[in-house]
Each structure stands twice: as C-alpha cells, then as structure tokens.
Amino acid sequence: GGNAGMQTVTIVTRGIALGEVPKGVGWRLLGKEILLGLLNGMAIGAIVGVVAFLWKHSPYMGLVAFLAMALNMLAAGIAGTVIPLTLRALRLDPALASSIFLTTVTDVLGFGFLFILARLILPGI
Length: 125
Prior knowledge:
By secondary structure, the chain is mainly alpha-helical.
C-alpha cells in the first residue's frame, strides 16, 4: 500500500504546487482515488490471494491475503489524498511532511488489516 499511496501523495502534492488542485475539489479527487484504490487493491489482492492459496493450499489464507491487500491499497489511496490536502489546509508544506504520515498510516493499517482478518477468518487462530 505504501508505494500506491506515495504515488497518490506525489500526484496530489504536485497538483497543489502547480495550482491544479484548487480548494473545494478535494472531495472529487478523493472519490477518484477511492475508486482507483479499490480497483488496484482488488487486482493486486487477487494476485496475492492466489499466491497465498497456492502456497498454503488454504482458501482461507487466500481470502485473508486478498482482503488485507485490497483494504490496504484502498487505505493508501485515501490517505495519499487526505494527508496532503489536510497539510495544505493547516498551511504546512505537503511536500515535506506527507511521506512520513503516509508511511505510518499504511504500515499500521496494513498490519492491522492482516491480523484482524486472520483472527476473524482463519480457523484455529
């Protein structure tokens, strides 16, 4: 999720710097990134889920891997949009601070999604 989120941060921050993201279009931009995050997450999640299934011969493991990856990619797209827009609203430079916040969000949520889904879905855990 971190790489996908950094691409979003870069695009949004560049748009802010060039004046291509005026105030008030954040919701529209967020909607676009949610859709892209879902599509990317489902595509990458499907690949990871198939690999996990083939590796462990467990449909449950494949499902956990798919869902965790899809949710993390979605979260990365949302965070990659919201963080620079929020920093701009706070009159802080998004180019300086966005990456550390994004990395923290995607790491924490990624592990959280994985552990919670494993606990809920995998038998015997």
